[in-house]
Design goal:
alpha/beta, 4-stranded antiparallel sheet, 12 strands, about 10% strand
Length: about 650
């Protein structure tokens, strides 16, 4: 939910800096109109979520309403109708058999209501809850998979997304409970209040005092608790990050071999202390509000109402003793029902605050929609061109810095292009643009002369086989990690096996306990395999080979390999991506010896394309590339020197 004032801008920034209507209103009117709009939207937000839940499980919604109407109906019947029948003055001449029959029928009704409620809570809900949770999470997964990559690099977006995701299941149950309770308690309260007024109008007035006080106090308390939670979200996220890092196997070696655990401990401690500081900031206010509500809304009002009822029965004789018994029970019931009504309304208001987060997340419209249809992708790929492309990340908008600046180059089918440059020169950013994970800030990217933004997004990406530098292995079989989809056919199996052979990983994978069907990582399988860095990289490179795509992007495909394995890997890459294969191949590498094997070399520096040509042409120019190549070559020169004190042994020394 968008909070008043500056928090409106905070949430908007949480959705990748896209300011919506509420943000404009807040800046224009100082948040006054927004506050009113928030109050009006609270109930509609709950109904919005209830519609989602209805779509997932309409039966549970219906049973939830029935459950609460039965519960409040039972309560109302027992404390008002039942007691008035037994002790009221209207029909005291009825026979005992009539009274006994009424009691028996009442017991049967209570028994049936109890059976229904126990069945619902002990049988239906435990069975339906996991199904509802699964559907809710799938909805969030699908949405998260479709938001722009830029959002994942925005800290505020994570706060919004994690709030929506972490609270979705809990708030679903709360909405399923609180919304029916509001309606049921309202009708039950109205009936009991009417009964009170029919006995004594002052008693009816007393019954409203706890409702009014509880509503006012609860509303303030919920707002303060929400602000406390919202302020503490970044700290909780940091603590969760440390928890996750300390349990993930890929961090285990660094944690044990370095002092990074101390830094993680400090991060956790700082976040913990920050959370404690936020708690200290709000506890006095929440304590005073809670104490005031507890004392003013219940003990004082209860004692006052009971004293008034006793006065009417014992002093003024304005009501009979039987009516006093009815009034006594009705007062208690009304007070708790009205209190329950106000609590439900307050809880509904609090739900609305969280549902608004979810609503905004689900309503976010990606700048690059994953389901974008567009033109069908071409069957034959000839050229992929960057035409005066500039790009800056959202975080760079303030300082105006560009990750890429006016880059123009063309990649041709049948030619292998090496993309080289120092760290931070823009190589990986360029690949992200070619994959259309981002769109250029300026300029355009053309496939066969047509802007890639015009093509069906999934079909366009289907043309590309990619190995990322920061690849991840999943807790799935080796073959599934290669094809990255369900392994359903023998053809897929053969393609994955061939890809592993080309990457040089097949022989090593076949030695695993279950061969290529071995599960990687031990996340869920104690018999799973934990691969070395080089083995994992070969599996990742195999993904590009398995796809057999007309465009191949390889980002540092040999960074974890030894020199021999690296040479063989590049031999295979050049063979698979060679001219006869008619593929566009773009290979990012820090090791310029691999660039010498490519048809074209493009050198990036500080986001600009500084040099372009063949290896020999760039060496003859004697520019940046030639200087980099020579310096890197010198670092690999080996001097042969006698080993001190051991005649005849001449180990090599790598000159630095």
């Amino acid at each position: 939910m968008i909070a008043p004032g500056s928090q409106v801008c905070y949430i908007d920034k949480g959705l990748c800096g896209r300011r919506g209507e509420l943000g404009s209103l807040d800046s224009a009117m100082g948040g006054i109109h927004v506050k009113k709009q928030i109050k009006m939207r609270t109930f509609s937000d709950n109904l919005y979520f209830l519609k989602i839940l209805w779509k997932f499980n309409s039966r549970w919604v219906i049973l939830g309403f029935l459950d609460h109407f039965v519960a409040f109906g039972e309560w109302t019947f027992e404390t008002v109708i039942f007691m008035r029948y037994l002790f009221g003055a209207e029909d005291m001449d009825r026979s005992f058999s009539q009274t006994a029959g009424f009691v028996v029928v009442s017991l049967l009704v209570f028994f049936c209501a109890s059976v229904f409620r126990i069945w619902l809570q002990e049988r239906y809900v435990p069975k339906a809850a996991p199904e509802l949770n699964e559907k809710l999470n799938r909805m969030l997964f699908d949405k998260a998979a479709g938001v722009d990559i830029a959002c994942y690099e925005d800290e505020a977006f994570y706060d919004t997304y994690t709030k929506a995701a972490s609270q979705a299941v809990e708030r679903a149950r709360s909405v399923l409970t609180d919304t029916p309770r509001v309606f049921a308690s309202f009708f039950a309260s109205a009936f009991v209040v009417g009964t009170l007024f029919s006995i004594n109008w002052v008693a009816g007035f007393f019954a409203f005092l706890p409702m009014i006080g509880n509503f006012l106090f609860s509303r303030i308390i919920n707002r303060v608790e929400y602000e406390r939670t919202l302020e503490g979200t970044p700290q909780v996220r940091r603590m969760n990050y440390v928890n996750r890092v300390l349990y993930l196997p890929r961090y285990a070696k660094e944690i044990r071999m370095t002092g990074i655990k101390n830094v993680l401990d400090d991060t956790y401690e700082t976040a913990y202390q920050g959370l404690q500081g936020i708690t200290r900031k709000y506890w006095k206010k929440l304590f005073c509000l809670g104490l005031s509500r507890g004392v003013l809304c219940f003990p004082l009002v209860f004692e006052g109402m009971w004293l008034f009822a006793a006065y009417c029965a014992m002093v003024t004789k304005s009501i009979l003793v039987g009516e006093f018994v009815v009034l006594f029970n009705a007062i208690v019931s009304t007070t708790w029902m009205l209190s329950d009504l106000t609590n439900s309304i307050s809880s509904t208001y609090q739900n609305g605050l969280y549902v608004q987060k979810l609503k905004e997340f689900l309503a976010y419209e990606s700048k690059i929609p994953e389901d974008w249809q567009g033109l069908p992708a071409p069957e034959k790929v000839e050229t992929l061109e960057l035409r005066d492309v500039s790009f800056r990340y959202p975080a760079q908008e303030k300082d105006g810095a560009y990750a890429l600046s006016h880059v123009s180059c063309t990649f041709y089918a049948g030619r292998r292009t090496a993309l080289v440059g120092h760290n931070g020169s823009g190589k990986s950013t360029l690949i992200k643009l070619l994959l259309r994970l981002y769109d250029p800030t300026e300029g355009s990217i053309l496939l066969n002369g047509t802007d890639i933004r015009k093509f069906n997004l999934q079909q366009y990406r289907g043309l590309i086989g990619t190995t990322f530098q920061d690849f991840e292995l999943f807790s799935m079989s080796v073959l599934e990690n290669v094809i990255l989809e369900r392994l359903e056919t023998q053809e897929q199996r053969r393609a994955a096996m061939e890809a592993l052979r080309r990457s040089g990983a097949l022989e090593e994978m076949e030695k695993l306990e279950k061969g290529v069907d071995t599960i990687l990582t031990r996340e869920f399988d104690q018999q799973g395999a934990v691969l070395s860095g080089g083995q994992a990289q070969k599996v990742a490179v195999a993904r590009s080979f398995a796809k057999n795509a007309p465009i191949v992007f390889l980002d540092e495909p040999s960074s974890a390999l030894d020199p021999v394995a690296e040479y063989r890997m590049y031999e295979t890459i050049m063979e698979v991506c060679g001219g006869e294969q008619d593929r566009i191949a773009v290979i990012i590498s820090h090791r310029l010896s691999s660039a010498a094997m490519a048809d074209t070399v493009c050198l990036l520096q500080e986001g600009k394309l500084k040099e372009q040509g063949t290896h020999l042409e760039l060496m003859e120019q004697g520019g940046i590339y030639a200087d980099m190549f020579r310096k890197q070559a010198e670092s690999y020169l080996q001097d042969v020197e006698p080993f001190p004190g051991k005649e005849g042994l001449c180990p090599n020394r790598i000159s630095q």
